[in-house]
Amino acid sequence: MKYLALTGAVLAPIAAASVLIARRANHDATRRRAHWGAVALAGAALILLTAIFDSLMIGADLFYYAEDLISGLRIGLAPIEDFAYPIAGILLLPALWWLFTARPPAAQVGWPRALRNLFWASRPISWINTAYPFAAAMVLTTGRVDALLVLGTLYYLVPYNLALYGINDVFDYESDLQNPRKGGIEGALLAPALHRITLGVALVANLPFLVVFVYRANAVALAAIAISTFALLAYSVPGLRFKERPILDSVTSSAHFVTPAVVGFALAGADFTAPHLLILVAFFLWGMAAHAFGAVQDVIPDRAAGIGSVATVFGALVTVRISLALWLAAGALMLFTPMPGPVAALIVVPYLVNCAPYSKITDGAAHRTNRAWRRFIWLNYACGFLVTILLIAM
To answer: What are the residue ranges spanned by the domains of the chain?
Structure first.
């Protein structure tokens, strides 16, 4: 089957599903028009970026298409078939966002509401933060896309995050009630009726992937998987609750994002050389800085709930400065890695600029750092894009 026929067979049901979902989720005609206007604008931007960067990658001989399987029509150097993926994404993802984030009445607890809440609890805006390190580690090591890469990326994209954040939301429910940030992209507020469902679905969604990884793992990969899974549980579950142990909370939180990269390297059979270790340590310091800075905004509600954290112990001012020092250290370590590592060191600069204005913040004003934290969420996407360009340049 030629690629054009294949992409048509995939795009047709996706387009139909996106229309039906958008109509069901947006009953108001004005909201539907706004939805499709946003889809058109984002689609034009995504198609333009695809044309530019696919042309650059094809021009650099990073990949090619068999001429007998494509139509021959191109935008730049990119075959028109190459645009099926961004078009599918731009049609389906906004529709799914509307579907899963629609807020039904609180009294409705059944599976439709449960699925929406599970989606929200998994922090979809943060999925990429764990899937990307795993995928990048495997691709850098093997130089290819295989079934294990796809399986692992899917795992660290959704099931891992559902367990990581869903378990946290279950056991943090009482304190989350006092936190005005909860109930949106920064954290779900799961009703008690959904707690057992959340824990059950998280278990069922994670186990098959972990069984496959263990089957394929060597000794290093087994250790990395064990540490990753333990850190995921230890952060939130009663009896351990590392999130309430200052400094250990930042260490464990950083492990949530670094261990997927370690698992990726290990499953791919990488030799952990000095550059590997420097990159992983720099990433670990970055993760600790991110957690510590994120904890600052919750100093008041955490103290009111009796929750210990790096920020409640050291205070807002010292914690912000600790974050700045950790980001600086992460950038400094990257200077000692092979190219393009020294260039990547500059990526810490936006984080420093975002954090530095709060270096004299008081505990009473700590909630103001939420603005910087929201910017931090989007900084991750922008900086991830820059890292991707650097990896392609390699």
So the answer is: 1-102, 112-393
- For residue 74, the SS3 value is strand
CATH number of 112-393: 1.10.600
Is residue 317 within 8 Å of 360, Cβ to Cβ? yes
Give, as one character, the DSSP assignment of residue 270: -
Question: To which H or E segment does residue 183 belong?
Answer: none
The parts of the chain modelled with pLDDT lower than 50 are 104-109
Question: Tokens 């206007």 map to which residue?
Answer: 37
Task: Convert the pLDDT of each residue in 214-232 to its tens digit.
Answer: 988 899 999 999 999 999 9
Write down the pLDDT at residue 262. Answer: 95
Torsion of CA 177, 181, 185, 191, to 10 degrees: 10
Instruction: Identify whether the C-beta of residue 310 lies closer than 8 Å to the C-beta of residue 247.
Output: yes
pTM: 0.76
CA nearest neighbour of 391 among 340, 357, 347, 336 = 340
Read off the pLDDT of residues 55-89 as tens digits, 9 standing for 90 and up.
888 887 777 777 777 878 888 888 888 888 788 88
Beta carbons of 240 and 249 less than 8 angstroms apart: no
Contact residues for 28 (Cβ-Cβ < 8 A; gap 6+)? none
CA 309 to chain centre: 23
Which residue, chain included where needed, has tokens 């670990």?
A: 284
Please provide the DSSP assignment of 103-169 as one string: ---TT--SHHHHHHHHHHHT-GGGTHHHHHHHHHHHHHHH-S--HHHHHHHHHHHTHHHHHHHHHHH
Query: Three-state SS for 331?
Result: helix
